[in-house]
Amino acid sequence: MARFAAIDVAGVEPEHGAPAAERLIAGDPRFTTWNVEEAEGGLYAGIWEATPGKWRIVYDEWEFCHILSGVSVIAEEGGEARTVKAGDSFVLRPGFRGTWEVVETTRKEYVIKV
Length: 114
Known about the structure:
Radius of gyration: 14 Å
Organism: Aquibium carbonis
Pfam family, one: Cupin_3
Number of strands: 9
Protein name: Cupin domain-containing protein
Number of domains: 1
CATH topology: Jelly Rolls
Strand content: over 45%
Order of helices and strands: EEEEEEEEE
Mean pLDDT: 97
InterPro entries: RmlC-like_jellyroll (IPR014710), RmlC_Cupin_sf (IPR011051), UGlyAH_Cupin_dom (IPR008579)
C-alpha cells in the first residue's frame, strides 16, 4: 500500500445527502461527498460540497477544513459567527455546536478524526 494519498476525486463514487430533517433551519441544502481516504481507527479525508441552506451542526470528532470555493457562515452556540471562503482553513473540535449556513455553494477539503 502506498503511503502517499492525493485528495483526487477522479474515479471516486460520490455520496449524496442532506441534513437530517430535525436539523434543517432554512433552504434545501444538498451534500455531495467524495470520501477519498477511510483508515482504520476513524480517519476520513476527501472533498465535500453543499448547496445553499442552513442547518444545526454538532461535532463529536475533530475536523480540519480547507475551503476550496463558495461562502459559508459557521456560528458557534454562544459565540461569534465566522464567514469562511476560498482559501480559509480551520478546525472544528469535538463538542462544537452551532449552525452551518451555505451562502454560496461551498466546496471543502476535509480530514476527520473520530
